[in-house]
Amino acid sequence: MEEPSSIVDQKATMIEEFEEPKKLGLAAAIAQGISIRSWAKKNDVPKTTACGWALEPKVKIEAQRIRRQMLDRVAVAMAKRGVFALSGITRLASEAESESVQLNALKTILTDAMRIARYTDLETRIAEFEEKLRRDPESFSPLPRR
Q1: One digit per residue, pLDDT tens: the chain, 146 residues?
Q2: Are 27 and 63 in contact (CB under 8 A)?
Q3: What is d(CA 129, CA 136) in angstroms, rounded to the nearest whole number?
Q4: HSE-up of 78 (CA within 13 Å, CB side)?
Q5: Torsion-angle region of residue 35: left (phi > 0), alpha (psi -120 to 50) or beta?
Q6: What pTM was estimated for this model as a whole?
Q7: Which of 23, 95, 29 lies closest to 55, judged by CA?
Q8: What residues contact residue 54 under an 8 Å CB cut-off, 6+ apart?
């Protein structure tokens, strides 16, 4: 006969395996800005359960990972537009008809692409730092106060 604790462990494992895909779905929804309430209703999960899952570190980390992935895609698209803007600005500068509205629009595209690239780089660096900190919290000491 199996020990009661073994049966409890098996049941807990089964529940985790059932919940895992739902938690990943919730993380994806959170990353996309979908409300927890809306996701819970659509996926037949009690709102309180979904809210509890949303607070779990694993779900938060996955939502952040998905969000970073989405931002990376935006950065790539903006970088491509930046190349277009740069070639347009170069063309306008060399052909020099007063196209100030077009020039300003192209400058805006280029400026925005540069901002997103900087933001994405910072996001990546912070994520790497957080991962190192998560893996080895003892290796980091607080900064001295000034």
Answers
A1: 445 556 555 554 545 555 788 999 999 999 999 999 999 999 999 999 999 999 999 899 999 999 989 988 888 888 888 788 777 776 666 665 666 767 776 777 778 778 878 878 888 888 888 888 888 877 776 666 65
A2: yes
A3: 11
A4: 20
A5: beta
A6: 0.53
A7: 23
A8: 26, 30, 36, 60
